[in-house]
Structure to design on (273 residues):
């Protein structure tokens, strides 16, 4: 049997020069123009993570709103451009920028770095699938989101509706193949609650995941993957109602939103410290 040969894009790090004055193109899916855009910057957690990293650490950039992942060098969004050169993957981009613009994690102890890495793994490889489940697999999540984004899939021209249906079917299959869609919704809700309750414990009474005085790259990850659970209740009401009872993670979402996303509104009342 012949195996499919998948293309592999190598990031051309050697072809870009970035310094403090460089304006980097940040290509991402944005929330679009709708009621939810006042509460979240994007429904893509990797995009929110990268944009938050850029804002937290003052990296000059201009946002480019992409409509399809096909334009990404690995067919994934987000990616960055410096001139015509493209670098992909939020994690690889952050790693590279740390080497050329300074590393906001340099002061962390090995144990803190290890903890940050494990939290990142849980969010990007576990909680992410729950996000996809609500965006694509669940009828209620899909109906809610497509209503907000395009005013309901049934109002669209037939060919666009068909393209959306195909995309949804593709992501539903991925959710089933990965395994998340083999759990009941009650089990999925429980999994999401446990991930975020664990982060709440780890933040404790600090301002950020790993300290009180300044954020690290891990805070951009936490914000990217948990913001919508706090801000967009109608996608997943049971999860949102639970996470809004978490005092430390809720305070964290409020801190990051007010400090780095002054244009956004908070959809919930954070607990007072
Ligand atoms: N590891 C990548 C993941 C990016 C990713 O999965 N992006 C999603 C949007 S949230 C995407 O482009 N999906 C399109 C697809 O998989 O077809 C990163 O950190 O940038």
């Amino acid at each position: 049997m012949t195996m499919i040969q998948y293309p592999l894009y190598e990031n051309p790090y050697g072809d870009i020069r970035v310094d403090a004055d460089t304006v980097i193109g940040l290509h991402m899916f944005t929330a679009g123009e709708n009621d939810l855009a006042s509460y979240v910057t994007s429904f893509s957690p990797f995009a929110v993570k990268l944009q938050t990293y850029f804002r937290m650490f003052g990296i000059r950039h201009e946002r480019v709103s992409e409509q399809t992942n096909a334009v990404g060098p690995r067919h994934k969004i987000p990616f960055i451009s410096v001139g015509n050169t493209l670098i992909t993957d939020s994690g690889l981009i952050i790693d590279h920028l740390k080497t050329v613009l300074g590393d906001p994690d340099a002061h962390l102890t090995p144990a803190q770095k290890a903890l940050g890495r494990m939290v990142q793994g849980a969010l990007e490889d576990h909680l992410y699938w729950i996000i996809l489940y609500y965006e694509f697999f669940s009828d209620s999540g899909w109906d809610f989101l497509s209503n907000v984004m395009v005013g309901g899939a049934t109002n669209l021209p037939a060919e666009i509706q068909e393209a959306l249906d195909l995309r949804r079917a593709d992501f539903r299959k991925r959710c089933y193949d990965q395994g998340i869609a083999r759990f009941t919704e009650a089990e999925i809700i429980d999994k999401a609650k446990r991930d975020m309750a664990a982060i709440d414990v780890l933040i404790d009474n600090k301002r950020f995941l790993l300290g009180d005085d300044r954020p690290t790259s891990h805070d951009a990850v936490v914000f990217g993957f948990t913001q919508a659970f706090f801000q967009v209740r109608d996608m997943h009401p049971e999860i949102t109602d639970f996470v809004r009872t978490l005092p430390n993670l809720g305070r964290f979402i409020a801190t990051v939103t007010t400090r780095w996303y002054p244009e956004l509104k908070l959809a919930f009342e954070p607990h007072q410290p």
